[in-house]
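FORM 12-B: Structure-to-Sequence Request
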């Protein structure tokens, strides 16, 4: 597509993306240890010593932007560019930071706010994601960053709150946006023919997953183990946090003594939440089974529909016989599909254990536009990639064993699946017939940009903006 179109696309994402970069950068860099980055003569320079002489570079009402904020966001953007994303300039990032502050300031005027409970929940969840990258070991995290978990949480909480407010403001501003087929056609027809993007070959692939059901004898062993741990705690021979560190198989909370942080009702497994809301603060439950395993839960605090709890999780491991039963189950289901007694989509929706694909008829989707058509690069699983390479379009595999990786914990568990190679689309220039969903997503982004641009014209007159003279050269918001 044209360079102008690509610039607009960047701007659309900048408002939300930069806040995420900042919250990630809190873990990546400290303002007193930032590495020197080659200066861009057309943008504000980094101090040659590699140290940032921190100062306020912009004010929006009562909100400020520090030079260290800009540097952190820029360094994170450079890191992202090394993973295949185009690096925005410092001025583009500066403008995005300024827009975020405008949205926060305007949210206060318009009473578009987020609750402290929501912020705490998101902070805890973000921190747990980072902790999982260190195998759930807080000591390793402290060694890497020189800060405790509480210190790191405190550092990202303000950034999380700002990010949530910006997201909520964007949703509020664009809530009435609709995209019609006519809008998509107009958008497509306005792209110069010589600028139409070239799409790589794509495939449509579905799966039906069966997670082996662990035999009752193994489950009973885990229940008895958890009951014995509970009795030790009640007898005063051990405390809950110590037992969680020693026995829990939840990498995101074990190092925290099992502490999960705050969640809202409806965010955790139903069985877990039903147990939590039946407990009094400090009370410990009997073992509770969810899709993740067996939990022993202690309620720490409840605030209305939000709660803080800790748990000890032990996951049952399926035996060879358990896995063979799952294979037999899927092979029988495959026979019904091949004999056209049930469609693949219905079988996936009714019987697949993979929640991310089952509601979509078993088909994998592109996370950007929600399309069922994926480039081969999107298939990150090398086993899946090479399996498709040996299949014919329109065929379904026999049951296949594979390692199912939980994206939240990184834990790998044995599972069985059928794969359906439905379609293949050769590489081609963009067109309305084959690429409607992609073009619809791009049309929506373009319309969002137009709505936000009109909003900024009005909003920037309603808030006080003061930019440091060193950053005037960026001409931020000039075209807004």
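FORM 12-B RESPONSE
SEQUENCE OUT:
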């Amino acid at each position: 597509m044209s360079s102008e179109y690509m610039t607009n696309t960047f701007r659309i994402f900048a408002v939300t993306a930069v806040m995420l970069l900042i919250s990630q950068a809190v873990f990546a860099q400290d303002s007193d240890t930032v590495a020197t980055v080659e200066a861009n003569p057309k943008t504000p320079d980094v101090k040659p010593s590699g140290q940032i002489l921190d100062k306020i570079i912009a004010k929006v009402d009562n909100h400020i932007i520090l030079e260290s904020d800009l540097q952190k966001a820029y360094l994170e953007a450079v890191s992202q560019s090394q993973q295949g994303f185009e690096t925005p300039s410092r001025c583009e990032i500066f403008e995005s930071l300024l827009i975020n502050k405008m949205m926060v300031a305007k949210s206060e005027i318009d009473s578009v706010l987020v609750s402290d409970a929501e912020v705490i929940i998101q902070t805890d969840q973000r921190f747990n994601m980072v902790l999982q990258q260190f195998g759930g070991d807080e000591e390793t995290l402290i060694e890497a960053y020189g800060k405790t978990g509480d210190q790191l949480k405190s550092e990202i909480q303000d950034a999380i709150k700002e990010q949530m407010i910006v997201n909520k403001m964007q949703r509020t501003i664009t809530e009435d946006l609709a995209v019609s087929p006519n809008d998509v056609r107009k958008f497509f027809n306005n792209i110069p023919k010589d600028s139409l993007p070239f799409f790589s070959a794509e495939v449509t692939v579905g799966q039906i997953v069966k997670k082996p059901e662990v035999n009752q004898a193994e489950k009973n062993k885990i229940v008895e183990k958890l009951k014995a741990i509970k009795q030790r705690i009640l007898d005063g021979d051990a405390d809950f946090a110590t037992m969680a560190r020693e026995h829990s198989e939840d990498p995101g909370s074990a190092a925290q003594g099992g502490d999960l942080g705050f969640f809202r009702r409806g965010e955790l497994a139903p069985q877990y939440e039903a147990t939590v809301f039946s407990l009094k603060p400090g009370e410990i439950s009997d073992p509770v089974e969810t899709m993740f395993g067996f939990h022993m839960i202690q309620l720490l605090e409840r605030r209305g529909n939000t709660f803080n709890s800790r748990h000890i999780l032990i996951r049952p491991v399926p035996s060879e016989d358990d896995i063979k039963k799952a294979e037999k189950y899927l092979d029988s289901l495959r026979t019904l599909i091949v004999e056209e007694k049930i469609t693949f989509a219905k079988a996936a929706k009714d019987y697949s254990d993979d929640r991310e694909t089952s509601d979509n008829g078993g088909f994998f989707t592109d996370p950007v536009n929600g399309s069922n058509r994926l480039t081969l690069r999107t298939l990150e699983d090398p086993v899946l990639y090479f399996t498709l390479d040996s299949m014919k379009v329109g065929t379904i595999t026999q049951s296949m064993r594979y390692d199912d990786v939980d994206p939240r914990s990184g834990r790998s568990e044995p599972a069985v699946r059928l794969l359906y190679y439905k379609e293949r689309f050769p590489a081609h220039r963009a067109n309305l017939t084959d690429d409607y969903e992609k073009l619809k997503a791009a049309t929506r982004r373009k319309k969002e940009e137009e709505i936000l641009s009109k909003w900024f014209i009005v909003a920037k007159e309603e808030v006080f903006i003061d930019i440091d003279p060193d950053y005037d050269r960026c001409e931020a918001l000039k075209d807004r």
